[in-house]
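Two entries, shown back to back:
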Amino acid sequence: MLTLSAAMQAKLDAVATTFCQCWRLTRNDGAVLGFTDHDRDLIFNGVTFRADTGLSASQLETNLGLAAGTAEASGALRDDGLTESDLLDGLYDGSSIETWLVDWSNVSDRVLLDVATMGDVRRGERAFAAELRSNAHVFDQQQGRAFQRGCAADLGDPQCGVDLAAFETAATVMGFSGGILTLDLASVFDSAYFSGGALTFTSGANDGARFTIKSHGQDGLRASVALWTPPGGAIAAGDRVSLVAGCDKSAATCQQKFDNIVNFRGFPHMPGNYRVIAYPSALAPAMDGGSFFR
């Protein structure tokens, strides 16, 4: 429940009010941006809340219980504010957004309405719309171990334990055409070695942006790499990138590619659906309830 000062309550009870909404957005890289639906900039808590972005938000919908509340914020894409390249490069994914109700005639009269996380973003030619998820969305995240064939860990995380530095290499961009990056690598790798892995730009217009690799082909030291999402900035020959090997989370890959089967977080011997619908046959192994792998 919100606690309002006497001054705020009096202004809310008045026939005409001088309130507007402000949003304080904190990106994962630590950058802080402020926006408001008022017609001039406002400043408080050391942040300038800009009025020229056309940002607006829908009403936050909440439910009883632990269901996550949702809202939507939309605004203009500007070179000096929210840019399409930053959105494409994932700089706003998972950002924290504070929603404030502020008296624009006296910004010291304000109240924090909600803290949300930025979810899915839709982009148009000159505008964007972002889903705002309440903190209850954390309850939708998986807790504990999952009973599945594939590994439940992510390559390089504490549960996996793989040292990514041993499976990482630097490369130079030679060209970009048709959604395919042509790279000059320092070493020779098998085709598909980096499929499902990560590519991070270490120079150029996309410096620091990280993308998931869709496919990887190799011909000598020359590699062809496709990404699942295109970078937001221009790609130029000579840009430097870093590639990390991909993992399909199978037991065979864990053992043969990473020599890490001791930390495998899946259940490769779990029977599949084909075992459930199987029926006894004189030509098939005995179905006596014992192990299928002995």
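entry 2 starts here
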Amino acid sequence: MASPSNLRFRRQHPAGTYVLDFYCPAFKLAVEVDGEVHARGDQPQRDAARDDWLYKRGVRVLRIPAQAVLSDLEVVVRHIMVTARGEYPSTGFAGPPPPPGEE
């Protein structure tokens, strides 16, 4: 298996009828950076259907609010790395993962 310290992502990766923001094939991990529009209208249901479609194909989806990327990119990158290793149970961004040794 690839090392999480040198994750390789594809940008705008096609998956069926969808286009993933970022995709790491070695870990079958999609990272979606969600702006405010993802909380409006029917977008949450559309995102859930998309996530379900990907899940059924063995792809984990990590959704990260765009504001988190803008405010603390280092924490976001660490969260992505920990998620790729499978050491953090959540694929929803709720802040930084626990400190090392407390995971």
